[in-house]
């Protein structure tokens, strides 16, 4: 479990819990001092996620999903049942992925996963909240048709899922993927957020919009 620095004078905290063979960044974010929390992208290893929740002493009230790929949603139905909380996201364009979680899991030897539907689909311009924290929703297709990004302007922080990585971008060779669409999402939705915005992504280390604007070859090649 990799701990992230608290953001903006401890008004929010976050930890990353790497899960499954994909080392996917399941993320727990909470507000301070209320300790109300959300789990973003519980891809699997639900007992590990539950243990992390217990260790940090937060009360999880929601599950948010950035998109519908198996490594991000494999544990969502199980965690919803365990915590009795709603699932919000992704965009409805990823419904075909959530309808086929079992089939996708079988290809990677993941058992115990279930097809499901979220309690709320998210779209551009929506917002979601946990405790005193509110995040704007950006619909950023390309990696998957229904990928969304969670952005908090006060904290200057985003969770971008697999849209953007440190030094790279999300793969686009999966069903519904489009490299041109992904780059457009990054250029028109993420870069305008501002160079000072830090982000957590779906795999690997996080970064900032400014760092990626300057050094990410997928972005610099388009500018």
UniProtKB/TrEMBL annotation:
Cited InterPro entries: MBL_Glyoxalase_II, Metallo-B-lactamas, RibonucZ/Hydroxyglut_hydro
| Gene Ontology molecular function terms on file | hydrolase activity; metal ion binding
User: Which key words are in the record?
Assistant: Hydrolase, Metal-binding, Zinc
Swiss-Prot/TrEMBL cofactor(s): Zn(2+)
Q: Which residues form the signal peptide?
A: none
Q: Which residues form the Metallo-beta-lactamase domain?
A: 23-203
PANTHER family recorded: HYDROXYACYLGLUTATHIONE HYDROLASE GLOC (PTHR46233)
State what protein this is by name: MBL fold metallo-hydrolase
This protein's species is: Bradyrhizobium cytisi
């Amino acid at each position: 479990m990799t701990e992230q620095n608290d953001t903006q004078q401890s008004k929010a905290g976050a930890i990353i819990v790497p899960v499954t063979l994909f080392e996917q960044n399941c993320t727990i974010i909470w507000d301070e001092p209320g300790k109300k929390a959300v789990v973003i992208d519980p891809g699997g290893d639900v007992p590990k996620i539950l243990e992390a929740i217990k260790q940090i002493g937060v009360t999880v009230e929601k599950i948010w999903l950035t998109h519908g790929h198996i490594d991000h949603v494999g544990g969502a139905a199980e965690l919803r049942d365990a915590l009795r909380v709603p699932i919000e996201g992704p965009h409805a364009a990823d419904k075909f992925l959530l309808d086929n979680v079992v089939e996708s899991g079988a290809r990677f030897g993941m058992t115990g996963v279930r097809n499901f539907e979220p309690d709320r689909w998210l779209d551009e311009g929506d917002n979601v909240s946990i405790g005193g924290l509110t995040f704007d929703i950006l619909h950023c297709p390309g990696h998957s048709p229904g990928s969304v990004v969670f952005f908090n302007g006060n904290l200057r922080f985003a969770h971008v899922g697999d849209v953007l990585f440190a030094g790279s971008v999300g793969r686009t060779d999966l069903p519904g993927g489009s490299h041109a669409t992904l780059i457009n999402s990054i250029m028109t939705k993420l870069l305008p957020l501002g160079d000072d915005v830090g982000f957590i992504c779906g795999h690997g280390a996080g970064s900032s919009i400014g760092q990626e604007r300057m050094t990410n070859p997928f972005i610099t090649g388009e500018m």
